[in-house]
Amino acid sequence: MAKRILAPLFAALAFLAWTTMAQARIPLPDITELVDKDGPAVVNISTTKTIKAQEGARDLMEQFRKRGGPMDDFFDQFEKHFGPQGRGGGKGQKQRSMGSGFVISADGYIVTNNHVVEGADEIKVQFKNNEKGLPAKIIGRDPETDLALLKIEGKSNLPYLEFGDSGKIKVGEWVLAIGNPFGLDNTVTLGIVSAKGRIIGAGPFDNFIQTDASINPGNSGGPLIDLDGKVVGINTAIVASGQGIGFAIPSNMAKDVIGQLRDGKKVQRGWLGVTIQDIDENTAKALGLENTKGSLITSVIDGQPAAKAGIKTGDVITAVANQKIDNSNDLLRRVAAIRPGESIELSITRKGSPVTVSVTLGERDAKKLALNGPNQNDEGEADGDQIASVLGLSVRGLTAKEAKALGMDKVQGVLITEVGDGSEAEQADVRPGDVILEVNQRPVSSPDDFKKVVAEDGKKKGVVMLLIKRQSQTVFRTVPIGESK
């Protein structure tokens, strides 16, 4: 009897709970009106590029010829019958590719990715429901952010999109992508912002918005749009082996770059003239920092703005113009966003004490930023070499020849000759051939100096921070002392 009464009661309660949950669910957004409004401003971009015919075959043959062997006979017979492959030029062939873009003004300015139009001989823009492509010209490109600005002439009253504020968008917000994936024009996909501030190794200013809105080849250059109809990102990259992982350039970064290109200017970025690295827990401990926030200066380039302002190797920049710095990528982006010639204040921690430095920025020149190749060190022995086994590594004095080969003005530091397998030093990426210039921000010029600082200051702190000269670079590496071998 009780079971008969309770069963309908449980069923009623379950139904009530289900309906309550259903009512509490957040409804999916209706984006039909948004697509009708913004869709016409999104365009397909097709490009034509002339490439040298047979370049690939020629390069492959040359690689095999360099190796020698039986393939030489094959290539000799091939060229006998078909002629030299790629030698002396050859006809060019057309390579076609497609991407996306969006109009940002009624008179025909269009934003897309640099990689969509780079090297193109001909660019055509096609609007929704219009089979005829319109010729476009490149107004400007910025390879470092992968952005480009195009223009179609003779048009007015075109539908266009406005940039939104990517800084305000939150993880979990709905966004939609419109573009040309696999040549399927004006395709709309919906998803959310999966993450912000992603660094994927695409360039020096990585700060991508990650989204699970479906993005595929051909979406490059198209807009990522919020529910207010504003562009918060420019779709630019995908993870080829994954699904639902796409990346967009934040609109706040794009607005500044596109504004400069539209004014007919080259993109100008601020420049300090330093090399930098992130701070790990051991390094923070060695520097007496409370956390790992900030960017550690590993070298200061002579004659550049940082050197003129008195910034030193080992300084930690914690804020730019009172805006806190999280890491080196953050510092790079913030400085680059400021115009050359402007003076800014940097908050610095120097040997445990806060310092404020005013610096007038120079101009970043991407062409001059390529690192020099590895130096080839001359072999040479120093008189009266001293060996010191500390921290799982062996060091000795540096010869004049070795210092010269490393581009050093004078003999300083100690040379690492061995690093023990499995030692703390090896785990901290300390390598044979590195030259230790400083230990815990104290210069060392001999193995005895090295041992003394390690035994005193290092033991006290439990870690040693090594300033290392490695080929053409200087880097910091931090090694715990407690478990040294």
Structure description:
- The chain has 485 residues and is of the alpha+beta class.
- The protein has four domains: 42-82 and 90-151, Thrombin, subunit H; 174-262, Trypsin-like serine proteases (Thrombin, subunit H), CATH 2.40.10; 270-368, Roll (Pdz3 Domain); 388-480, Pdz3 Domain (Roll).
- Helices cover 24% and strands 33% of the residues.
- The chain has twelve helices and 28 strands.
- The protein has helices at residues 2-24, 32-38, 55-67, 71-82, 114-117, 251-262, 281-287, 305-308, 328-336, 400-405, 424-427, 447-461, and strands at 42-52, 92-103, 109-113, 122-126, 134-135, 137-142, 147-151, 174-179, 187-198, 208-211, 223-226, 231-238, 246-250, 270-271, 274-277, 295-300, 316-320, 323-324, 343-350, 353-360, 362-363, 388-390, 393-397, 414-419, 435-439, 442-443, 463-470, 473-480.
- The strands form five sheets. It has a seven-stranded antiparallel beta sheet. Strands 22, 23, 24, 25, 26, 27 and 28 form a seven-stranded antiparallel beta sheet that branches.
- It is elongated.
